[in-house]
Specification:
Blueprint: E1 2-12, E2 22-23, E3 30-37, E4 40-51, H1 62-72, E5 77-88, E6 95-100, E7 103-110, H2 116-132, H3 150-161, E8 169-172, H4 176-179, E9 186-192, E10 195-201, E11 207-210, E12 222-224, E13 229-231, E14 238-240, E15 245-247, E16 256-259
Parallel strand pairs: 8-16
Antiparallel strand pairs: 1-4, 1-5, 2-3, 3-4, 6-7, 9-10, 10-11, 11-16, 12-13, 13-14, 14-15
Bound molecules: FE2/S2 (inorganic) cluster.
FE2/S2 (inorganic) cluster binds next to loops.
């Protein structure tokens, strides 16, 4: 599976809203629903998704969503905004069933491909029937063992090797001309003596340097300037600009460099 990031706005439209939830079938996909906000309803508009760990394009931003909202509700005013991640299976079908043939009493339900409200109900029915020893005519379609778990065994072994450590700090010298290529409030990966260094410069020009290698299985991280995070394109782990792990499956912080 891989992770996909979507953006969401909570919008006061200053006009009457609909009931129900709606999604369009073609790309770009947006979903519309409502939520209670004090004594009125606000619009929850989601979409502009992209693979986690890849820098968002200009179509993948809160601005795009705001423009979509304004098209239908010209008086729109954004009151909340956030982004979220979903597990996407390679064949786009969730995995629902036993975790492994060695652990028949442990169940898994994942890879909902952004259809969690629907798929979690399917999962609840299938798993309930499995526990009760009843047939479920849909369970074959979501077979959790449909891919041999060889890759998972490798991943488990790698996870086992990882140890909880807080920051390992190394000293590094970064030439001023390299640093000056990065604007304030921006991040990038630069090469120093053949090594990749992840740099973020805050709004005042303070520099934060990390080793941009995911502590899960070692993929190269990418800078997400919207959230000021380092994101992993492989399985969606994320780290703040100081290298703190903020999103699993990685659970270890990044190596941090102190500038000399
Ligand atoms: Fe798996 Fe980064 S390598 S989340």
């Amino acid at each position: 599976m891989y992770q996909s990031t979507s953006y969401v706005l909570g919008i006061d439209t200053h006009s009457e809203l609909f009931d129900g939830m709606y999604i369009n079938p073609s790309s770009p996909i947006y979903s519309f629903r409502t939520a209670k906000f004090g004594d009125k309803k606000i619009l929850i508009l989601a979409g502009a998704d992209h693979k986690t760990g890849f820098a968002p394009t200009k179509e993948n931003t809160y601005d795009t969503l705001e423009n979509v909202a304004k098209k239908y509700y010209p008086k729109s005013e954004v009151v909340y905004r956030w982004n979220t991640r979903d597990c996407i299976s390679l064949d786009k079908i969730p995995y629902i069933g036993i975790l492994s043939s060695f652990m028949p009493n442990v169940f898994v339900a994942t890879g909902f491909n952004k259809w969690g409200i629907t798929s979690s109900n399917v999962a609840a029915n299938i798993i309930t029937n499995k526990i009760l020893g009843k047939e479920n005519k849909y369970s074959f379609a979501f077979d959790s063992l449909r891919l041999k778990p060889i890759k998972n065994r490798i991943e488990l072994k790698n996870m086992g090797k990882q140890v909880f450590k807080s920051f390992i700090t190394n000293r590094i010298k970064i030439p001023e001309d390299e640093l000056s290529k990065i604007e304030n409030d921006n991040g990038a990966i630069i090469k120093i003596d053949g090594k990749s260094i992840g740099i973020y410069k805050d709004t005042s020009g303070n520099v934060f340097a990390v080793k941009p290698t995911c502590t899960h299985l070692g993929c190269l991280l990418t800078w997400n300037n919207l959230d000021k995070t380092w994101d992993c394109p492989c399985h969606g782990s994320r780290y703040d600009f100081k290298g703190h792990n903020i999103y699993d499956p990685a659970f270890k912080h990044l190596i941090v460099f102190k500038l000399t």
